[in-house]
Amino acid sequence: MARPLRLEFPHAVYHVTSRGNARQDIVATDADRRMFVTLLAHVVGRYGWLCHAYCLMDNHYHLLIETPTPNLSQGMRQLNGRYTQAYNREHRRVGHLLQGRFTAIVVEKEAHLLELCRYVVLNPVRAKRVPHPRQWAWSSYRATVGETGAPAWLTTDWVLGQFGQRVGLAQEKYRAFVAEGYGGGCPWDQVTGQIYLGGDEFVARHQPGRRIQEIPRRQTQAHRPSLVVLFQRRRAQSQIIHEAYRQYGYRLAEIATHLGVHYATVSRRLKQAEQANV
Predict the structure, then answer these.
(1) 79 with 139, same domain?
(2) Same domain, 82 and 155
(3) Residue 7 lies in a domain
(4) Contact of 24 with 91, CB cutoff 8 Å
(5) Best-predicted range by mean pLDDT among 40-44, 209-213, 234-238?
(6) Which regions of 109-241 does DSSP assign to beta strands (E)?
(7) Structural domains of the chain, count
(8) In CATH, what number is assigned to the domain containing residue 245?
């Protein structure tokens, strides 16, 4: 069977999994688990991803990743490659740790992301490792419901925003939503063409020949206006963000730092500007 295509386009959402070679464990100790989460945090920050949920199991992991810039493969090479090197060094072993390429399903965000966030954090419960997701330290569940502090690299605002604007109430409703998923069905029965989880229109819109091409970062940026100058212009902030990112090659993290806001806020405003320009 031919390998499925890698589809990459701005603001794509993916369910990513990677499994141990020959079904072997990919973690042996809690130190390994901490090392994996540390590397995940590094990759999310470096590549400007939005991580909506994650779960690290013994022999595989799940990630729900949104990529404002089409760079999933770059980041995954970093994550899997560096983790394998670190694990092999720590345990004095050689060879493959992970099984082939990672698997990435392109997800229609509005229709399926929330359900997948529930599915991912319930993985340890389905595997009968723990009776409740809060008892599994290596997932995003506890941070999302507010039982631990959410790390800066984990994006919880979209998930909680589906349940209301008041954080505490939204966390309560999310907790109940997850509890309702015990014994639920498998979302992968709805996957089309090995890589799509979405409706017919979503699939048609993202066929390979119709993908949006990434706009290259400028080779020289010596004469571009500074962010200070750009944001002094009398225009909507979302439009200036769009111009700074698309025309002048500023990274979203740079823009967020300049504005003093969270990276996810800049990403949302960029998307709003792009939708307005369609």
Answers:
(1) yes
(2) yes
(3) no
(4) no
(5) 40-44
(6) 196-197
(7) 2
(8) 1.10.10
Tell me whether residue 17 is in a domain: yes
Same domain, 179 and 254: no
In contact, 5 and 195? CB cutoff 8 Å: yes
Place of tokens 């973690």: 27
Pair 230, 198 in one domain: no
> In terms of C-beta density within 10 A (0-12 exposed, 13-18 middle, 19 or more buried), how is residue 170 classed?
buried
Query: Alpha-carbon distance 56 to 20, whole Å?
Result: 12
Tell me the residue type at 233. R
The per-residue pLDDT for range 227-266, each reduced to its tens digit, is 898 898 888 899 899 888 777 778 788 898 899 988 788 8
The pLDDT of residue 208: 67
Q: Which domain holds residue 113?
A: 12-209
Separation of alpha carbons 8 and 70, rounded Å: 5
Element (H, E) at 61: strand 60-67
250 and 163, same domain (yes or no): no
Q: If you count them, how many residues does the chain have? A: 278
Alpha carbon distance 189, 201 (integer Å)? 18
Tell me the per-residue pLDDT of 99-156, one tens digit each, with 9 for 90 and over: 988 999 999 999 999 999 999 999 999 999 999 999 999 999 999 999 999 999 999 9
Query: How far is residue 144's CA from residue 262's CA, in Å, rounded to a whole number?
Result: 17
pTM of the predicted structure, to 2 decimals: 0.75
